[in-house]
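Explain this one:

_____
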Amino acid sequence: MKQLSEERFSKIFHFSPCMLVITRIADNSLVDANDCFLNTLGYTREELWGHTAQELNLWANYEDLAKIIGMLNEQQPVRNVEVSFYTKSRDLRHSLLSAEKIMLGGEELKIAVRAWVLLCATVSPPGTTRRLK
């Protein structure tokens, strides 16, 4: 049953159309990111793995990150917080972020979801989204 749950989590994580990233609580290092996160930011897994958002200079406003970490440390889930971040090429992007602490493999981690909800039309360059037929 545990293996089935982990397999489901892995599939949902990796195939989600939202940007997903898992961060280690102990040192804030990035543990994993899905393809949407990697493609949006322009990084490879190898470039992100083991580094912190601060080392990669991902956040436009580190006060936002501090508030989010504070909320999680107080066991408060974070829901739909507007945040700004930089891609590898230093383009500024905006999204809604939700985050929560999780236990995975006996380790305390943070999973964060970034969604373009309602921001796609103003943030995404023309031609980067498509409508299903």
